[in-house]
Backbone:
């Protein structure tokens, strides 16, 4: 699909906004529908769109598989780490109340980092699944 | 970190170890992390077992949200007992996996194996520790999804098909379970098991609750391979890598039995399940059929690993038989057999894994005269086999003893005779191994490379020794089981 | 409206559940089986979500002028169940890809026939 100029131009215009929207959904998750799951999927969809238009090798150069795997683990570890931080600060596992000066700010801080972990893992899993299926058997558009 | 945090830490240690093993990217550090996490969980489970035996059940509010609003982890005598079994077997199998999986899997991807192993352990421990019905579903899926992958890693291409079949049946089972939970949630508005039990007492005969009971029974029975829902088990156990078979056979179905016990006695209550509905008759009939047919089918298998897989279905029949009695002796037998069969079958599959490493697979054509080339392995299989039969002086005897006692207590002499008679079929299939390994001349296909490496033999013999130890010293296993049975019948 | 008609979401749930289960059992194609499995799982999403919604209810955020709130908990539970469903489907398809590479087919009867043929000639299958 490299030669289809309409698709290429539209994709180039869309992808930055998709990534920006992913960040909006991520950080506005405290006040409106949204959060890590949705943001992660939207962010991964932007990269997958890039791979569909510009080819899998180009996407792999942009986001290498090694990085995807690292993000996948790092996200889960971040989630688990927030939980353990609750224990370290004298609360229970996944206790957000003790993470800030007062319970409300603690809740904000806890859910913020947990959602970052979720977003990292979800987007990495989506990309990893896409890479694994697309990279198997016949290669498209190479 | 104080002792109060143990119910969470026992699950979190392997759960956090999984991404660490993934990030390590190399086999050796990944394996070290996995083993350390399993060992930590084992120590934590033992500490918890001591704590709940003296001080009663421990409740842990995840995220400091008090139950029933937050997710509660609740460890009582029964769950501590199962936690010790799962984490103990995981700790013993981990060193075995280093030698066995290194030989069976690609070296570059070995770290992924350990990450999945940690996830599976965390899932099973989570299912046991949690007191929240939906949280249990999530952990069930963590354990199931990782075990599908672990089974698909087997060398034979048939491993792929058996993993696929297990995936389809396992997902149907988990979905049935979650449908049951959905109906219970509609009726009670809570997901906390203790809270659910309290609210169910008034409405326990309404149709949605009975439908929920049916869905949960079928779903969990699929997971624990109750006859006739066992079809996924023989292939999955036969073609999975040796370490995976040993771990899943010793723990996977046992945790599902625990879930069944929890729901029958902890949530629905004895009255509705076993007195108003014919559940105990149904369970009794299915158990009897399972024991007979699976033992007979095991007799005709050409592969020792497959033979043991069918024997597992029969042994699960003994456990459900104990549950169907719904008496103190019956439940004690069920819980103690859950433990004894876990370590016995774990030992057998570990030893067979050693044979498979040397011979490629464990078909009976490779076992002719095995006692001459692998004496320690053969001896171990015979000793653990005796425990499987239920010979006095082994762990298997203890559980069969309580089962017979329970049957006599209920006035069912035919059942006691049946239990003894079916043990003879187990003698027959263990004899097939003795005949091949000890009496037959050395066969052409028998491996001649000598014993399996010590890293595999030592863990296997630890479990063999345990299956003898718990035949003599029943203070932990039987007393723990008796306390658990008393708790269930309260 | 009668009870049967006003509880139409349950009818849809049952329909999806049975249809999905039927596809899993009746179809021999491994991908079609997975599609059936997904439909079957989808019925559970509806079973949880539909009773949580009150007609005229708003999201449970306390504000002036709103009295009726929908239950948010089923949504959270089902979000988890959806993730589990996606993971199961992805894993199932990945195993099907590997089966296709190993057997050259994704029809269950052909695969079983290939296994039986290989068992009759044990030397070649190992």
Residues:
């Amino acid at each position: 699909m490299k030669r289809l100029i309409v698709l290429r131009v539209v994709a180039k215009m869309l992808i930055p906004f998709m990534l920006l929207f992913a960040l909006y959904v991520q950080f506005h998750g405290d006040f409106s529908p949204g959060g890590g799951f949705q943001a992660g999927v939207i962010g991964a969809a932007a990269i997958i769109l890039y791979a569909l238009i510009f080819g899998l090798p180009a996407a792999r150069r942009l986001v290498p598989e090694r990085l995807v795997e690292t993000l996948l683990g790092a996200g889960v570890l971040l989630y688990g780490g927030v939980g353990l931080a609750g224990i370290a600060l004298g609360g229970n596992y996944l206790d957000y109340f003790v993470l800030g000066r007062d319970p409300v700010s603690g809740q904000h801080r806890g859910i913020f980092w947990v959602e970052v972990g979720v977003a990292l893992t979800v987007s990495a899993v989506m990309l990893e699944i896409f890479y694994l299926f697309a990279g198997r058997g016949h290669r498209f558009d190479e | 970190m104080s002792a109060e945090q143990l119910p969470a830490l026992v699950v979190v240690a392997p759960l956090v170890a999984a991404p660490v093993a993934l990030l390590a990217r190399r086999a050796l550090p990944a394996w070290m992390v996995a083993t350390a996490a399993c060992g930590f969980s084992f120590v934590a489970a033992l500490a918890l077992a001591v704590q709940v035996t003296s001080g009663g059940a421990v409740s842990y509010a995840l995220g400091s949200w008090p139950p029933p609003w937050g997710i509660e982890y609740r460890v009582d005598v029964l769950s501590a007992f199962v936690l010790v079994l799962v984490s103990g077997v995981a700790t013993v199998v981990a060193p075995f996996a280093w030698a066995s999986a290194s030989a069976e899997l690609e070296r570059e991807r070995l770290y992924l194996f350990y990450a999945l192993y940690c996830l599976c352990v965390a899932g099973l421990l989570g299912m046991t520790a949690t007191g929240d019905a939906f949280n249990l579903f999530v952990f069930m899926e963590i354990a199931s999804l990782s075990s599908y992958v672990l089974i698909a890693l087997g060398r034979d291409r048939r491993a792929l098909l058996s993993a696929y079949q297990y995936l389809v049946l396992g997902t149907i089972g988990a979905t049935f379970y979650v449908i049951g939970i959905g109906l219970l949630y509609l009726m009670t508005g809570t997901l906390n098991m203790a809270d659910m039990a309290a609210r169910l007492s008034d409405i326990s005969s309404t149709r949605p609750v009975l439908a929920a009971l049916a869905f949960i029974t079928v779903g969990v029975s699929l997971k624990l391979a109750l006859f006739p829902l066992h079809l996924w088990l023989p292939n999955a156990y036969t073609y999975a890598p040796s370490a995976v078979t040993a771990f899943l056979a010793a723990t996977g179905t046992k945790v599902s039995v625990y879930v069944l016990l929890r729901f029958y006695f902890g949530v629905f209550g004895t009255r509705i399940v076993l007195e108003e509905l014919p559940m105990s008759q149904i369970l009794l009939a299915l158990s009897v059929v399972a024991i007979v047919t699976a033992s007979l089918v095991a007799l005709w298998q050409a592969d020792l690993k497959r033979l043991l897989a069918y024997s597992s279905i029969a042994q699960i029949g003994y456990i459900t038989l104990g549950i169907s009695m719904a008496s103190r002796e019956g439940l004690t037998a069920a819980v103690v057999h859950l433990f004894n069969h876990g370590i016995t079958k774990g030992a057998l599959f570990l030893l067979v894994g050693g044979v498979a490493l040397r011979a490629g697979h464990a078909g009976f054509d490779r076992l002719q005269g095995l006692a001459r080339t692998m004496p320690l392995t053969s001896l171990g299989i015979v000793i653990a086999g005796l425990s499987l039969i239920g010979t006095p002086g082994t762990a298997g005897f203890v559980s069969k003893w309580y089962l017979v006692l329970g049957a006599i207590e209920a006035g069912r002499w035919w059942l006691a005779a049946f239990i003894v008679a079916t043990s003879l079929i187990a003698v027959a299939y263990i004899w097939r191994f003795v005949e091949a390994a000890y009496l037959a001349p050395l066969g052409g296909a028998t491996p001649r490379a000598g014993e399996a490496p010590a890293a595999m033999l030592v863990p296997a013999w630890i479990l063999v020794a345990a299956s003898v130890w718990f035949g003599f010293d029943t203070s932990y296993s039987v007393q723990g089981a008796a306390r658990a049975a008393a708790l269930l019948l309260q | 409206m009668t009870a049967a008609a006003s509880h139409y979401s349950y009818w849809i749930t049952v329909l999806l559940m049975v249809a999905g289960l039927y596809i899993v059992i009746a179809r021999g194609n491994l991908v079609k089986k997975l599609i059936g499995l997904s439909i079957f799982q989808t019925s559970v999403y509806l079973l949880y979500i539909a009773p949580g919604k009150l007609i005229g209810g708003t999201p449970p955020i306390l504000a002036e002028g709103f009295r009726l709130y929908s239950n948010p908990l089923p949504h959270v539970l089902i979000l988890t169940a959806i993730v589990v469903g996606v993971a199961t489907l992805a894993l199932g398809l990945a195993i099907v890809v590997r089966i296709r590479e190993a057997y050259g087919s994704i029809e269950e009867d052909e695969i079983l026939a290939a296994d039986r043929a290989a068992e009759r000639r044990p030397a070649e299958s190992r």
Notes: The mean pLDDT of chain B is 89. The longest helix of chain B spans residues 328-359.
